[in-house]
Design a protein that fits this description.
Length: about 700
């Protein structure tokens, strides 16, 4: 029954919508339609109780927060409500005590906004109280889906073609195609949801009017009432059918099924730091250098351009404030404004000046991705929380589907990362090769997958290399089955290339001063056959390693297992933390350095962040988010022994966390490469940069 049928005759009939500069479809400036005109609500005395009334009137389960001072931009028209005093239980905002509708001393700089939960009220039914102004109403329905037309298409993943259905009043209804446009299809395909067959169709009462650049159906307007026949069928006789083209990462190919690991050729845009497919910090390539986008004016429309460009659907959320980690390098774009129809974010208008922008304001996105069903073929069993457990996979054996375990031989961080991503649980925090403390599901002990090797970018464990039906697991399953623990956040170490470039120099040091370094294998192998009064030529430099992630970087080994090195009088918390190598231009290694992380600590931190880790007195080791660890050029082993290297041009490379011992949100920025010229007397380091992709060698 309609809420409005229960209201007294003197209660003003209003309609609500969320407008303005949105970063999610379920947030925005609160706008009220009354007396034939849209207006706003003042933030004076507004509370979460009032936000609750707004959100529930719009069909959302609850309010998450509210924002004063026109956060979503200044509205227009009357300010219909001021000094609202809601209890949170009112059926409509019009029932909350206020100064009276239209009575206000506010300006539009005080327009209030709300953020609603993205969950809809089960059985919510859209009620239209203003039949004469229907074209200005936003669409509010419980859910939307694409339903396969034929039952034989039901098992196709993802569902790309079928009827468009909306859930209103707890019932799925088709939409009449009388006024359907390609712009409507563009929005539906961008949302990219799927559903299943149902027989007797019923039709929704309204048509749909999208402009095509909306990220969600709820941002489209209602069209005119669509039912023209008394028996509830479509006046045009046909329901809306859409046919969508999935991004290539999700499109099956005849030869190999789904692509194993998505690699875009020569991309101008990429996502970094996200836990799952389709989310991350937005980075753009300009003049051969990757940089970020400042979040000023960042909204759903611009985020959707990024998502579509990368082969995903529309944006679910436009994130600001470095929410998915801070980038490095320049801020390439600021105050981005897109129409929503651009092929690339680089085509949108933007301000080239980024004055006042820092990486604390890096923009990010969460995109709609097709429902691939990957989560249903994998589970964690026996853990204390849903974020940990023995890995169990669903495979076909002798014509039936059975659950079983994964052999832990070679099981490591990359494999665990794929499991956590597939389950939507974020990043891996640990990979376990023994799981005797997690009993797992009864009847799922048998090993059904072995030889798993992942690159870390796969969407499903089944996409990784593995033995297939030819299982080989000498240890067997049981206590040696693979396990993982997952976390919503992860660290992200990035080495500062400018510091390497600026601090490099060459030193000739006598062997008798290098005894400790020799014992720790920090010199080349020929150093063992030379007299104590000979010299070693050392390429020295400083390393400054930032943690730009969302959680602290901690060594994998517990404090009890750290190794004491008597020579240097310190503990090694990781066997290998960084690798230093010198390569010829054809890729042949000509010299190498080896460095264990004898001390992981906070050397310096960004303003407002306190140091947490210090090595002195057997203290905790790690690198706090927003801090950096500096290995100065004048400490032992902070070098490459180039005694035996001939003069010439070389490539110098540093790799942090090279064995992936500690999970990170992004390993692609763990490498620094520099050009290096050595003439036998002096050394020059230049063109240092992070990552592999913009090397010009």
């Amino acid at each position: 029954m309609s809420v409005f049928l229960l209201l007294s005759p003197d209660t003003p009939r209003i309609q609500l919508r969320l407008a303005g500069d949105k970063r999610k479809h379920n947030e925005g400036r609160v706008e009220v339609f009354y007396n034939g005109e849209w207006g706003t609500v003042c933030d004076d005395d507004f509370t979460l109780h009032a936000a609750q009334v707004v959100c529930r009137e719009l069909g959302y389960v609850e309010a998450i927060s509210w924002s004063p001072s026109s956060k979503y931009g200044k509205g227009q028209g009357p300010i219909w409500f001021d000094n609202l005093h809601c209890t949170g239980k009112e059926k409509t905002l019009a029932l909350c005590p206020s100064n009276g509708i239209g009575v206000s001393d506010c300006k539009h700089t005080e327009d209030v906004g709300v953020v609603c939960s993205d969950r809809r009220i089960p059985g919510f039914k859209f009620i239209n109280t203003m039949a004469n102004h229907i074209e200005s109403l936003d669409i509010q329905v419980e859910d939307v889906r694409i339903r396969a037309i034929l039952s034989s298409y039901r098992k196709r993943i993802p569902v790309t073609e079928g009827y468009v259905e909306v859930k209103d009043g707890g019932k799925w209804k088709q939409i009449c195609n009388a006024e359907w446009t390609q712009f409507n299809s563009r929005v539906i395909c961008g949302m990219f949801v799927s559903g299943y067959m149902r027989r007797k169709p019923t039709y929704w009462d309204y048509s749909v009017n999208c402009t095509g650049n909306e990220a969600h159906l709820s941002s489209c307007k209602l069209g005119q009432a669509a039912l023209g026949k008394s028996n509830g069928t479509c006046a045009g006789g046909l329901p809306v059918v859409v046919s969508c083209v999935p991004g290539r990462a999700f499109a099956p190919t005849p030869m190999s099924g789904f692509r194993k690991a998505f690699r875009q050729e020569q991309p101008l845009v990429r996502l970094r730091g996200g836990a799952i497919v389709g989310e991350g910090r937005v980075e753009v390539l300009k003049n051969g250098e990757w940089g970020t986008i400042c979040d000023d004016n960042w909204n759903l429309q611009s985020a959707t351009v990024v998502c579509r460009e990368l082969g995903f659907g529309t944006a679910k959320e436009a994130l600001s404030g470095g929410r998915l980690g801070q980038g490095m390098g320049p801020v390439h774009m600021n105050e981005v404004e897109c129409s929503g129809f651009e092929k690339s974010i680089t085509e949108c208008f933007f301000n080239k000046e980024n004055v006042g922008c820092s990486h604390e304001e890096d923009a990010a996105v969460r995109c709609n991705v097709p429902a691939m069903g990957f989560q249903e073929r994998l589970r964690l069993s026996g853990g204390r929380t849903p974020y940990e457990g023995r890995v169990e996979v669903l495979v076909e054996r002798n014509g039936s589907l059975v659950w079983g375990t994964v052999c832990s031989d070679g099981w490591g961080t990359m494999e665990a990362m794929v499991v956590c991503r597939q389950l939507g649980l974020g990043f891996a925090s640990n990979a376990f090769q023994e799981t005797w403390y997690w009993p797992g599901a009864v009847g799922a002990d048998a090993v059904v997958m072995s030889g798993v090797r992942c690159s870390g970018t796969e969407m499903s464990l089944s996409h990784c290399l593995h033995h297939g039906g030819h299982l080989n697991c000498p240890k067997g399953g049981g206590r040696y089955a693979a396990g993982v623990s997952c976390s919503e956040t992860a660290p992200d170490l990035v080495l500062n290339p400018q510091v390497v470039e600026q601090t490099t120099y060459m030193e000739d040091r006598p062997m008798f001063m290098l005894q400790c370094a020799y014992e720790e294998n920090c010199l080349s192998s020929t150093s063992g056959q030379v007299p104590a009064n000979s010299y070693r030529r050392l390429l020295r430099f400083s390393s400054q390693i930032h943690n730009n992630g969302q959680s602290d970087f901690r060594p994998k080994a517990s404090r009890e297992s750290w190794v004491w090195h008597d020579c240097h009088r310190h503990y090694h918390s990781m066997e290998v933390f960084t690798l230093y190598d010198l390569f010829s231009l054809n890729g042949t290694k000509v010299a190498e350095g080896h460095k264990a992380s004898f001390c992981l600590e906070d050397s310096e931190c960004d303003e407002g962040i306190e140091k947490r880790y210090e090595c002195a007195n057997f203290g905790d080791q790690g690198i706090t988010v927003g801090c950096w660890d500096t290995y100065r050029h004048d400490i032992d082993c902070q070098w490459v022994d180039i005694t035996d290297v001939k003069p010439g041009d070389y490539i110098f490379q540093i790799v942090i966390n090279p064995n992936y011992e500690v999970p990170e949100s992004d390993y692609s920025n763990n490498i620094v490469k520099c050009r290096c010229r050595y003439d036998g007397h002096r050394v020059w380091m230049y063109s240092c940069h992070n990552g592999m992709s913009n090397a010009q060698y």
